[in-house]
What we know:
- This protein is an alpha/beta fold.
- It folds into 2 domains: 5-177, Rossmann fold (3-Layer(aba) Sandwich), CATH 3.40.50.720; 186-322, N-(1-d-carboxylethyl)-l-norvaline Dehydrogenase, domain 2 (Orthogonal Bundle), CATH 1.10.1040.
- It has helices at residues 12-21, 34-43, 65-69, 81-91, 116-123, 138-142, 156-166, 179-201, 206-226, 237-248, 253-262, 267-273, 279-293, 299-308, 314-322, and strands at 5-8, 27-30, 60-62, 74-77, 101-103, 129-133, 147-153, 171-176.
- β7, α7 and β8 (171-176) form a beta-alpha-beta unit.
Amino acid sequence: xxxxxxVIGGGSWGTTMASVVARNCPTxxxxxxxxxxxxxxxxxxNSKYLKGLILNKKLKANNSLPETVKxxxxxxxxxxxxxxxSVLNETKEFIRPWxxxxxxxxxxxxxxxxxMTEIIKEILxxxxxxxxxxxxxxxxxxxGQAAASVLAMVDTNIAQALQKIFRSGLFRVYxxxxxxxxxxxxxxxxxxxxxxxMGDGAGAGDNTRATMITRxxxxxxxxxxxxxxxxPTFAGLAGMGDLLATCISPLSRNRQVGLQLGAGKGxxxxxxxxxxxxxxxxxxxxxxxLAKKHNVEMPITSEVFKVxxxxxxxxxxxxxxxxxxxxxxxxxx
Length: 333
């Protein structure tokens, strides 16, 4: 019998994965906006986030959380990090016991510094948790372009059982038991993508971009390992793969934020003009909190935080990075 899947969150990534999963299983997408629900059901599209693209016709949508999750065998959470806890609290009483919950969100909760799967374990401690992450730009996947992702869970047997619901056509899904590393890679790379975008927006060249990506990878790997992730994870799809896609693609929201900052636009105006969330803006401060707690130096993240909070200009940020002493490549700087 096919597993019944509920996807919570009608943004670009939640809608895309719901459409992909609907090829394999009966799938219901929850969106708070009734107009979005009607459009998915009647026109098989979500023009607010995925204009011009057609969704799988078998995908159903609902704006009732109880109706969406009550019979689900798998829950997929695609809610921005700042709303994640509240939506999960709304949902928890309607979810059946022991149902696996897979997170698509690439962020860290402000105030608690918790990863999304840690929030799930706090609210629904008896449920198996996982994260699907990698170099996954929603529009490209919905268009059927080749891509790969990682499904990370501590229990590899459950991960292998769920692998088949995500895998479809040219969308390949691998498993990984490093839940911490995979989830952190997805959250931390957003900050580096803003930094790379800032350089591009200010007119920096390819050498600068390559340097920022490489040093950014070293930076997020240091913190990821300090928090319990495995170093090889950050050289894979959840680390380097996701970092590259987010830093260089014109579809990347975080890169777009950086580009506009580099061009001189203020962060308030940038956010107001965006229809989707760029997780790296809020994540930068949380990442620095974690870095300080674990005594990890993160110079790029520090400069991004200053820029997005109006404490310095993009030019000042790059000057600050250039003034740092250089030592061995394995060292911060």
